[in-house]
Amino acid sequence: MTKLLATLIAAVFAVSSAGAFAASHMAAAPAGEKKEEMKKEKKEMKKEKKEMKKEEKKEEKK
Q1: 30 by DSSP, 3-state: which?
Q2: What angle do CA 31, 37, 41 make, to 5 degrees?
Q3: In whole angstroms, how large is the CA radius of gyration of the chain?
Q4: What's phi and psi for 21, nearest 5 deg?
């Protein structure tokens, strides 16, 4: 039982260490850049919605 508990604790420590190592080495973009990208994506989505509405109206008229 003691060996099993020691093995489990060692495994948890190894997994948490690997997770911390991976997180510290991730290339994260600064917050400002992320916001700008989100704004661009929202604008593109709005444009696409407008175009789709225009196409639907054209089809309804026919």
Answers
A1: coil
A2: 145
A3: 25
A4: -65, -45
Q: CA-to-CA distance for 57 and 54, rounded, in angstroms? A: 5
Report DSSP state, residue 26.
Answer: S
Which H or E run includes 62?
none
Instruction: Say if pTM beats, i.e. exceeds, 0.70.
Output: no
Euclidean distance between CA atoms 5 and 14, whole angstroms: 14
Write out pLDDT tens, residues 1-55. 889 899 999 998 888 887 777 776 665 556 666 677 788 888 888 888 888 888 8
List helix spans (H) across the chain: 2-24, 31-61
